[in-house]
Each structure stands twice: as C-alpha cells, then as structure tokens.
Amino acid sequence: MGVELTWLHGVYVLFVILIIVTMMMRRDTSLLCMIGIGLLGWTATGSVFTAVGGLFGSFIYAITELLPTILVISMIVAMSQVLTETGINEAMVKPVSSLIKTPALAFWGIGIAMMVISWFFWPSPAVALIGAVLLPAAICVGLPAIGVAVAMNLFGHGIALSGDFIIQGAPTLTAKAAGLPVTDVISASVPLVIVMGAVTTIAAYWYLRKDMKSGLIPMTGDTAAKDAATGKSSGGISVKPLSTPTQKWLAAAVVLLFLLDVIAMFVLDLKGGDATALVGGTALLILVGITLFAHKGAGLEKVTAHLIEGFQFGFKVFGPVIPIAAFFYMGDSGFGKVFGETLPQGSHGIVNDLGVALAHTIPLSKEVAALALTGIGVITGLDGSGFSGITLAGSLAQLFATAIGTGADTLTALGQISAIWVGGGTIIPWALIPAAAICRVDPFELARRNLYPVIIGLLVTTIFAMFLI
C-alpha cells in the first residue's frame, strides 16, 4: 500500500486541474503555476518564508533541468542566422526541395526521417538535424511550420521514443520494474506502438489538412522559415556576401558535418545528452567558421552578435515555459531538491503517490487494468520528462497482472507508451520545446494541436490492448 494522501497531494491535483482547464481556454498559466508552487511549499513546510524562497528555487531547478535544451536551441538558431545571411540555407534547400514536392510528402517524409534517426539517437538531436535542413524545404512546398513541428513531434517524441526499440532505454526501465525480460516488453509494445502511431499521425494530418483548407492553421513561424528558405534576412533584405559556388561548397560542408555527427553517434554510441551536445557543438563550430570566413575583419563582432541573437531567441521561447515546468517538477524529484525532506513519510514523490493510490482504489478486470495503466501513464507523464513515471507504470502493471492473472507484458508496454506519449514531448508544452523552437512556433499552440490526435490514439490503443491481455 502506498503512502497516505495528504493536503499536499490535494493541492497538487487541484492546480493540475486548474492548469489544464486554463490551457484549454488558451490562457497563460504562469501566474497560476507560481501560486501553485507557493501553496505547495506552504502546505509542506508551514512557513511562508520557505514557500517564497522555494518559488525562486523552483525556477532555478527548472532552468537547470532545461538548460541543455535551451543551449542547443540557441546554438542552432545562431547558426541558422549566419546560414541565412550568407545564402547557404538556400543552397542547402534546393536539392531537398526537388524530393519534397507537396505538403503531404513533406509531412510524411519529415516524420519518417525523424522516426528513423530518433530510433538510433533519440529525438532531441534528431530535431536539430532534421529541422535545420528540411524545415525550409517543407515551407517552400506549402507545409506550414506548425505542420513540420507536428510531424517531428509525433514521429520522434511519440512513435520512436515510446517504443525505443534500438536504444531500449524505456523498455529496460519498465521491464525491470515489472520483473519481466526486456524482450517481452518490446515484443508486446510493437503492435501497440504501431496502432498508436498510425492513429495519431493520421488524425493529426487530417486535422492539419482540414485547418489548412479552412484557413485556420496557425502560421506562426512561417515567415522566419520562409526567410531561411529564400536567403532573406529577418528584415526581408537579401544578404548574400558569398558567391554562388562558395555557397554550394559551404552548404555541402555543413551537411557533411552533420552526417559525420550521425556516424559519430553510431560509432561512439552517443545517445541522449551526449548526442545533443555533439549537435550543439557542431552548430557552434559552423557558426564561428562561416562567420569568420564571410565577414573577414568584422567576424569577431559578428560571432558575438549571432550568439546574442541565438540566446535571446532561446530564452524568449523558454520564458513562459519555465514557470509551468517548475510547478510540474514539484510533482517528482524536484520537490525534495527545493523544499528539502518535507514530503510525507514513505512518499516517493507526489505524482508517484497519486499513481499508487489510484491503483489501490479501483476494482480490477482486464478492461479496468488497461484503462488504469493508460491513466497512470498520463498522470506520471504530466511532469514532462516521459521517463520519470515508467518505472511506476511497470511496477503497477505487475501488480495488476498478478491480480487478474494475465497480461503483464501488454500492461507494462501500455503504461510505457502512454507515459512517454504524454510526457516525452507531444502534449506537454515544455517537453516539446525543441521542435517548437526549431520551427519557430508557439509551444503551447503545438501542444494544443497535438492534443486531440494523441487523446484519440490513446483511446484506440487502450481498447486494442484490452483484446491482447
């Protein structure tokens, strides 16, 4: 039996509901999140001063957790600025444009490429690699930037990460928690990943096409992407200090460097943060090298100017995300880091306590077990990491399977898939920042656009799992 729920858990659940409702109303949630953090701190410690200090501490914790992503996005944006100014982006896009001729080809082509690269290197570095090259090409054939972001999100952070067939980080964690061989969880997840992926991406593309035809599609970010594709600066003035042949061989060099990154990731077994760091460092080297080459004597100042532009963009994008991330981090390990050992005795984190309590308060059948694992996955995914709750999902899947006498592997896979689809970067705004930032779209708008397809996919996949248990 899990820890007894307290007022602290009640405050957290109340603010989760309020935040979700506020998001659905398309209103900002920063103030609500800050109030929630303060009340959580006051409820846990009984001290107003500790709660106020914890509010600041939660922001520090959130920024620390998000900083690698902020930095790599800033580097990619800074690099894109110099590629745009010199016309190299245009030279990079032309060969790809000949292959991507329609919005449909752009959506599905970018999605499949994202999925394949994410299987080997996880989605964060894949977003940078795919977005830097294919976003302008997609814009040129009429796929809005929000459509590119949707494709990268659903195929990378959704399909590839939820199955994780190559790296096997996710199934290893869930399998250990459930006491099962990793191969059993992977085998059970294959049909579920296929159903979830097919339903979600088809639904997302249908909504996208419908809104494009009706003129309702959000166009945020398209101007910047079109500028990147056409070689225009942000002011609309074409800036091409390099000759056409020079642009072509530098474009080839940029593509080659990123291909070498891919090879290095495979040969050196670089994954996750290490792979992302390699992509960010490569972008920084490209920025420095091309800026010095193109601007000669003014290169030193131009390097600094582009870095400033990149950091301004990165922190501008993450500004509204930090408060909401700070709140949801309080549901997991962040609470102890900010407010100390003030959780109830025996607690394993507010979110985990809620998940265990849910498991012990519902009558069990295979249908209820499937619904419960999906629900637990969704709840634990709300912290935006995707991975923090999958061990809980695995342990509860074992508990449920023991109670109903079957289906441990399917329930484990279902909990893993639901947790990662929700928290891994498809409908939690601060988790999908990489794709939103690369495509220069509003992360909250991207989360709203993904919401209905992911909900539909989870419902269909849960029903499908009931027949497999």
UniProtKB/TrEMBL annotation:
Domain of life: Bacteria
Residue intervals passing through the bilayer: 6-24, 31-53, 59-83, 104-122, 128-152, 159-179, 185-208, 249-268, 274-293, 313-331, 419-439, 451-468
Key words, A-Z: Membrane, Transmembrane, Transmembrane helix
Keyword Membrane attributed: yes
UniProt-recorded name of the protein: Transporter
